[in-house]
Amino acid sequence: MPRLTSADVARESGVSRTTVSYVLNGKSDVAIPEATRQRVRDAAARLGYTPSAAARTLRSGRSDLVLCVLPDWTIGPVIDTLLDHLTTELAARGLSVLVHHDRGPRPLAELWRAVTPRAVLGLAPFAEEDERAMRQAGIQVVGSALDEDDHPGTFSVPQTRIGRLQVEHLAERGHRVVAYAAPSDDRLAAFADRRLAGVVLECERLGLPAPRVNAVDLDVASAAAVVRSWRAGPEPVTAVAAYNDEVALAVLSGLRAEGLRTPQDVAVIGVDDIPAARLAAPALTTVWQAIDAQATYLAAAVIAALDDAVDPPAQPADVFHVIARDST
After folding, report:
1. Residues in Cβ contact with 242 at an 8 Å cutoff, skipping those fewer than 6 apart
2. Cα-trace Rg, the chain
3. Rounded distance, CA 96 to CA 144, Å?
């Protein structure tokens, strides 16, 4: 079936293609009677015609797209929630979000040149050459980082502070021998390594032994084997700082399989406060992250980058804190 064009709408409504273009692209500064505008809209609806986004971009020199670039991370509840909030915030400003999961060898430049976004938002710092090329092409670039030191002056959610908060909470409850339950997926290393670094730093600050570190698969057998290794020796582990809530829930399963009680024998703390954390038995202590506030900040940063009249947003103060529950 041939693709519908504005010429089809013009014939159907009995007006010129120029009038169709003005009406369907919302040109309000052109004197067109409302009855004519409605006739064009009705004709377009009958035919099922919508203006080409690519054509609009060519005419205006810009699109309404914000390209959000995700590094090669796994997608879970936190990223899902962030993208949902971000999409809602930007939609309220007339902007659409296109999410690109940066996997494979395809250069980022191929994508942004093809879709001509108004802005590109990165959830991790861009390579200098990529950022420079986008800015030279007139595209606004907004970045974020996993720690303050990664990209000074860029919004960040310091992952090392998350690990420090976990150990601080466990130490306040009298624990000295701490383990870190790492994820088994290498794609999470950017987060996991930084959180582990925070655990190590806080153990050092408090004079605790270095944490015992093991990767935990999301199954009972793997978690039980790791728990056995932690409990062996003259100083058994009595507290676990887990990479996130999913890993923490696996640890809880491993503890039950080994006949150990939580928190009496081993306390456990996770990260993210996913819904399952509240439903666990015992309910899981976790580090809550202000995902909605982060999304609001990033959306506001995009708007400020696109509009010189808008001031850059202030970074949110309460990015995360511990929610204490029965597991500690």
Report:
1. 180, 181, 216, 248, 251, 268, 269, 270, 271
2. 26
3. 19
- CA dihedral in degrees (71, 180, 250, 282; nearest 10)? -120
Look at the block and give the residue holding tokens 């420079």: 132
Say which amino acid occupies 296. Answer: T
Cis check for the bond before 152: say yes or no (omega within 30 of 0).
no
Distance CA 296, CA 81 (A): 12
Helix (H) or strand (E) run with residue 245 in it: helix 245-257
Contact 69, 121 (CB under 8 A): yes
184-193 pLDDT per residue, tens: 998 899 899 9
The enclosing H or E element of 285 equals strand 285-289
CB 302 within 8 A of CB 123: no
Where b means 16+ CB within 10 Å and e means fewer, 224-237 reads: bbbbeebbeeeeeb
Tokens (6 digits) for 234: 């003259």
Structure tokens at 92: 């309220």
* Arithmetic mean of pLDDT over the chain: 87
What percent of the chain is predicted at pLDDT more than 70? 92
> What's the predicted TM-score (pTM) here?
0.75
d(CA 248, CA 246): 5
In sequence order, the 6+-apart residues with CB closer than 8 A to the CB of 179 are 211, 212, 213, 214, 230, 237, 239, 240, 241
* CB-count burial class (<10 Å; 0-12, 13-18, 19+) for 252: buried
Report the relative pairing of strands 96-101 and 65-70 from DSSP bridges: parallel
DSSP for 157-218? --HHHHHHHHHHHHHHTT---EEEEEES-GGGHHHHHHHHHHHHHHHHHHTPPPPEEEEE-S
CA–CA gap between residue 81 and residue 71 (Å, rounded):
16
